Amino acid sequence: MLEIKDSVAVITGGGRGIGATLATYWVKQGGKAIIFDMAADCLEKTRAELEALGGEVTTLVGDVTKEDDCTRLAETAIEKYGKINLVAPFAGITKDGFMVSTDRRTGKVKSKMSLEQFQSVLNVNLTGVFLTVRECTEQMINHDCRGLICLVSSIGSLGTAGQINYSSSKAAMSVIPKVMTAAFFRQGLSHRLRCVAIAPGYTGTEMVKSMDERVLDKVLGQVPIGRLIEPEEVTSLVGELYRNEACAGDVYFIHGGLRLGSRG
Ligand SMILES: NC(=O)c1ccc[n+]([C@@H]2O[C@H](COP(=O)([O-])OP(=O)(O)OC[C@H]3O[C@@H](n4cnc5c(N)ncnc54)[C@H](O)[C@@H]3O)[C@@H](O)[C@H]2O)c1
């Protein structure tokens, strides 16, 4: 079992939501956190909260879709703390909409999802994760680190209507742990480097609270526990996956019992 105390977590999307909650969890357990986000104001707020807890934290403003920013993130972690133990590439966005929307009256297509709406979500949620993980893994290998790369997939990876962009990006997150674990195994690294994904259901962050209220009510009607997942419940799972080195190469769902039906 690994200890969180004195370990170093690199968290993208660490300015708010699940990323910020993970940083709080990490420093409360005695770990150190590097939080990276494009929203400088959110980062500063989270930094103040973590420091008030007596936590050791470094903030970096950047964009996960920019290769240089991700290189700077991984290098900063090593310069500051000499190691990386947890990589949590949690920066993510949604831009929901049907691929083609029909007019109720005529039954004909009235609008289409734009290429930008599709690609921008893939850029952040997939390419951004690739860049973050590639840069951090390089440093973890070269500095003999031991730890976990914990991706964030979603219940949406199983296919939700109106999320062809988001669901595709999150389905990718559920195969990458297998790809990386197999590669680490072949390369003789799997005794110290692991990769998993968590797949949360609807979790009470800004991303979900900004959803249309009627849609959210409908969704919650399908959740057996009858409420949103708390961000703290998600980060507690990340902590367990970090500590428990038998967890590798798979996707761990946390959705309050939600099962998606044929209407997604
Ligand atoms: N909230 C949920 O219900 C839920 C469920 C399943 C999975 N997830 C996933 O968990 C992760 C975190 O979600 P959240 O609910 O905390 O979202 P959030 O919107 O509250 O926070 C996301 C953070 O990512 C940052 N970000 C966005 N694009 C960025 C970029 N290009 N570079 C750097 N930072 C960027 C934002 O500024 C923000 O601070 C996402 O990957 C999301 O898809 C969320």
Task: Please characterize this protein's 3D structure.
This protein is of the alpha/beta class. It is built from eight helices and nine strands. It has a seven-stranded parallel β-sheet with strand order 3-2-1-4-7-8-9, with helices on both faces. The chain has a two-stranded antiparallel ribbon with strand order 5-6. Helix 4 packs parallel to helix 5. The longest helix is centred in the middle third of the chain and has 28 residues, at 115-142. Nicotinamide-adenine-dinucleotide binds next to helix 1, helix 4 and helix 6. The site of nicotinamide-adenine-dinucleotide (NAD) has 29 residues, from helix 1, helix 4 and helix 6.
Task: Summarize the entry for a quick read.
The protein is α/β, with parallel strands linked by helices and 264 residues long. It has one domain: 3-Layer(aba) Sandwich (Rossmann fold).
Strand order, sheet with most strands: 3-2-1-4-7-8-9
User: How is the biggest beta sheet arranged?
Assistant: 7 strands, parallel
The CATH superfamily appears as NAD(P)-binding Rossmann-like Domain
- How many structural domains? 1
User: How much is the average pLDDT?
Assistant: 97
Cα radius of gyration in angstroms: 19 Å
Total helix count?
Answer: 8
Please write out the topology.
Blueprint: E1 8-12, H1 17-28, E2 32-37, H2 40-52, E3 56-61, H3 67-81, E4 86-89, E5 100-102, E6 109-112, H4 115-142, E7 147-152, H5 164-186, E8 193-200, H6 206-209, H7 213-220, H8 231-243, E9 251-254
Parallel strand pairs: 1-2, 1-4, 2-3, 4-7, 7-8, 8-9
Antiparallel strand pairs: 5-6
Helix pairs in contact: 1-8, 3-4, 4-5
Bound molecules: nicotinamide-adenine-dinucleotide.
